[in-house]
């Protein structure tokens, strides 16, 4: 039983996968994944049942039929408009070419009359269309300057000139369009420019397919360009972000290296300054010795050295005596204020004794005289 159930489950899973693929293929514009269909089997069955009523774009059969008819009607109207517009522009180009030709060469009178008549007819047709009250574009608007199409029709050129213009119009228009097509063919195939006119006319029907290919190629290149532009923008953003990270890492490395190197540089600079200071001191001593040698003789220097040694020894003795006296004074200060009074009294008595000794000495000298 278990083996049979496994086979049944396998078959069901295979059918579900096929159904999922059919639903996804029937609704390519629907943002649904195979996982969604697996998790929602009833929704999958609903979409599968809708496939016989709805096409790939999501439109029902009647709506699709009406849309196709509307598109066909629109294409036919666009085709009619393009034909009339092409004819109108071709006639305008012929008039412009004639105006340019008149400035460079002498135009025959009949040809000049032909183009003047055609230009007047085109202008009248244009303005009559503008003043036509039946046109939906001008419905409900007042007539310009009170003019009507009948007023403009009175300005129609002479019937004889109009008839002559109509007789030669088709031939001249055909020649103009033919020259334009041959120019376009030469532009598309420069290597065919030296071919004969008959050969160019034979090759001319293939230019439409060539233009379609070039158009499709241009559209594909444009799509590729947009895709490459998007990829380039993403790569530029990634490059800038990575470059910013690299700059931050580089700044960190520079700061760390600068801190480490700064300590070494400071030590070296300190050693340099020490050596320079010692050199300056040695130079000062040398200068002092040179000044002494230039100022004093050898005997004077030896005498000064002896005097210096004697003064230094006396200074040492006086310093030792001073220290001894200061130690005695410090020991006396310990005794307090009572001893200070006795010391002052002793000092006063010593001064009196010295004064009396001096007076006695003076008296003795006076008596001896």
From TrEMBL:
InterPro entries: HAUS4, HAUS4_met. GO terms for cellular component: HAUS complex. GO terms for biological process: centrosome cycle; spindle assembly. The keyword Coiled coil applies. Keywords: Coiled coil. It comes from the Eukaryota. It holds the Pfam family HAUS4. The keyword Chaperone does not apply. Residues 301-335 form a coiled coil. GO terms for molecular function: microtubule minus-end binding. This is (Atlantic silverside) hypothetical protein. It comes from Menidia menidia.
